[in-house]
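## retry 2 of 3
previous attempt timed out at serialization; input unchanged, resubmitting
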Amino acid sequence: MVNRRILGIELRRSVAPWAGFLVAGVALGFLYSFSGPWDKSAEDWTEQWTNAAGWVRSLLNILWPLAIGAGALQGLRDHRSGVGELLASTPRPVLHRALKTLGATAIAVTAGYLLVFAVAAVQVVVNDGYFHLAWVPTLLVGVLGLVAGAWLGIGVGRALPSPLTPPLLALASLVGVTVLTLAGDPASSVGGALPARVSLLSPSMGNVRDVFAIVSDRVSAGQAVWLAGLAATGLLLATALTARRRLLSLLPAVVAAAVALAVLPADRAQDYVFDHAAAELVCQGSICVTRMHEAQLHAGAGQAEEALRLLARLPDHPTAVREVLVGEDEGVRPRSSTEVTATFDDLDLAKKEKLTRRLVAGAGTPTCFSYSKMVTHEDYTKSIRETVARSVAASWFVDSYAPPYPEGSDSYPDAAENNTLAKRTYDSLRALPAGEQLARMSALRSVGLSCQGDQLDALTGGAP
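## retry succeeded, writing output
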């Protein structure tokens, strides 16, 4: 129904290509220019396929208003050119004329969105990310969201042909998406302000916090219905010539909202499902990791074996390394006298040849503190002392001192003071007889396994 030559002209000379460039440019700018979870841990946007789809989707809280604003600007074109009455008098159906604009805009914003995902996907492949197809619905719903937003903008722009329509529509959609996204985020200050079903009407799903969490099929289906209804409303608004038809154009969005609210889960715990296949343990020798980490097993196995060899100096040494699925903010991880437990973030250090030092920290025991559980100054002080002790233990086992905090870092309060404490503790420990050093390291391990006592006191023998 759309002439290819006309569509090509639209893609070259209308607002459509600029909308695609804007989507890609803004998304890549956010991902590369701003500090956030995408460049700090296993939730990096270039580490796993789920992360790539999730982080690009999360940016719809900014990209969706841009798409709507660009669409509204596109919808004003006939009015600005003064050819509305001329085009209305031609025998060609208005739908045929509208489809070229709608099609070009859809192609442009889709290309921009997929370009951002492609940038992430190439790096995921290079990083040996675990391949599966559960991320596809997240990506496709994101594409549908951008197209729906652009089409809705075109429809509103044609229905309300005012120079103020694009900026006001973009601002209103930005506020709306932000409120819905924050209301659906339990970590935000307004989390729970709206029913879960209503908050899921936002095209953005929020930040990626768990590499094993996949958007549930119910959420993807409900959002797809809702966004398809918005796209249909935009299409009808773009072709409506009377006030009555414009009013009827809202019907698809209303029906879609009703259907979506019936499909979307009422419990926020059902927004995501756990990827059991990715969490299956795969073992090589004495190290067991999840299938999602299988590609790094070869490099990590050698470093894990080295850590176990170093820990074998202890009388109650562990004999295996196992990955556990406990996030930093979920509480302390399981601890075992026979195994060294490692998290996903720990094992990512295998790529940087830093896994051995991490595994022997604390004499092979996990931390006793969780960042989310520290609420008092006393908790923070205990955590700092443990961090210093664990770092000293790691340096002792690998026979190479390294400070617990980066030198010259302004991100950690009292970093220089704590680094000095760690160096003094390490030097004092190394000055003791070999038997006493081993005894104190064994005492530190006992504290780490029971979380009763102070690991730094164990290293210093109770000395101040």
